[in-house]
TrEMBL record:
<keyword id="KW-0444">Lipid biosynthesis</keyword>
<dbReference type="InterPro" id="IPR020802">
    <property type="entry name" value="TesA-like"/>
</dbReference>
<keyword id="KW-0275">Fatty acid biosynthesis</keyword>
<keyword id="KW-0443">Lipid metabolism</keyword>
<dbReference type="GO" id="GO:0016297">
    <property type="term" value="F:fatty acyl-[ACP] hydrolase activity"/>
</dbReference>
<dbReference type="InterPro" id="IPR012223">
    <property type="entry name" value="TEII"/>
</dbReference>
<dbReference type="Pfam" id="PF00975">
    <property type="entry name" value="Thioesterase"/>
</dbReference>
<keyword id="KW-0378">Hydrolase</keyword>
<keyword id="KW-0276">Fatty acid metabolism</keyword>
<comment type="similarity">
    <text>Belongs to the thioesterase family.</text>
</comment>
<feature type="domain" description="Thioesterase TesA-like">
    <location>
        <begin position="19"/>
        <end position="248"/>
    </location>
</feature>
<protein>
    <recommendedName>
        <fullName>S-acyl fatty acid synthase thioesterase, medium chain</fullName>
        <ecNumber>3.1.2.14</ecNumber>
    </recommendedName>
</protein>
<dbReference type="GO" id="GO:0051792">
    <property type="term" value="P:medium-chain fatty acid biosynthetic process"/>
</dbReference>
<dbReference type="InterPro" id="IPR029058">
    <property type="entry name" value="AB_hydrolase_fold"/>
</dbReference>
<dbReference type="InterPro" id="IPR001031">
    <property type="entry name" value="Thioesterase"/>
</dbReference>
């Protein structure tokens, strides 16, 4: 559990667990801090994937199935008998969604709410038709990373820092490319939980509406000022936590 999950604020008596999935190349520290922003009724658990932080010596995951299998194997005992919700930004939107679908299909479990951020639905047409980012050469890949934003200038301008930063990012992008190109929208929505899409108003256009086709539950879209990493802005981060907290209050009253 401790290897996969980073939990700065352990609250075993919390009514709800919020599991946060990292963006491509990301670690667990950003979301682990969120535990201090929620009250005692919420325990925030940040997912730490192989190849980063305390797992830096482990090989990167090769497929979405590999990520899902580890997450479910470790978390399944924690998901039974207690309300839980998922949040994922960018690459994390896809890993959280894919994990939620597998949980429902195989175990009959489902998050009370799925929050996805900064990402089109996996069956969005332009995702399938665009060039694979994982097939770009190093120069083109770095140019794309720079255009997305959110990467500190001290990393982009430091060759040694880039050697540490790029490998986990490329590994996750390969998983993403393969996942979206193999994903076929099911005939009926695979989820029934409510789903909220967050996005930055200045980010590249995302097909957020298509996410509604993947759940039969309530659906809404909420945008905040900023680009792809709008959530790193302290004001937006506070707004996100406030928004999520309101949903969790409703979830807890419905669950108990």
């Amino acid at each position: 559990m401790d290897k996969l999950v980073n939990c700065f604020y352990g609250r075993p008596d919390a009514l709800t667990r919020l599991f946060c999935f990292p963006w491509a190349g990301g670690g667990s520290l950003f979301y682990a801090r969120w535990g201090g922003f929620f009250d005692e009724s919420v325990e925030v658990c940040s997912i730490r994937l192989p190849g980063r932080e305390s797992r830096s010596s482990e090989p990167f995951t090769q497929s979405m199935d590999q990520i899902i299998d580890e997450v479910i194997t470790v978390l399944l005992p924690q998901l039974q008998g207690k309300s839980f919700v998922f949040f994922g930004h960018s690459f994390g939107a896809f890993t959280s969604f894919a994990t939620a679908v597998r949980l429902k299909e195989k175990y009959g479990l489902e998050p009370a709410h799925l929050f996805v951020s900064g990402a089109s639905a996996p069956h969005a047409k332009f995702l399938h038709s665009s060039i694979k980012k994982s097939e770009l050469n190093d120069g083109e890949f770095l140019k794309w990373v720079t255009s997305v934003g959110g990467t500190p200038a001290e990393i982009l301008g430091n060759k040694e820092a880039l050697q540490l930063f790029l490998p986990p990012l490329k590994a996750d992008v390969i998983v993403f490319d393969n996942f979206v190109r193999s994903f076929d929208k099911p005939a009926s929505p695979p989820l029934s939980c409510s789903l909220t899409c967050f996005d930055g108003t200045e980010d590249i256009p995302h097909d957020l509406a298509a996410w509604q086709e993947l759940t039969s539950g309530d659906f809404n879209i909420h945008k905040m000022p900023g680009g792809h990493f709008y959530l790193k802005d302290p004001k937006n981060e506070k707004s996100l936590v406030t928004y999520i907290s309101k949903y969790l209050e409703t979830t807890e009253s419905d669950y108990f």
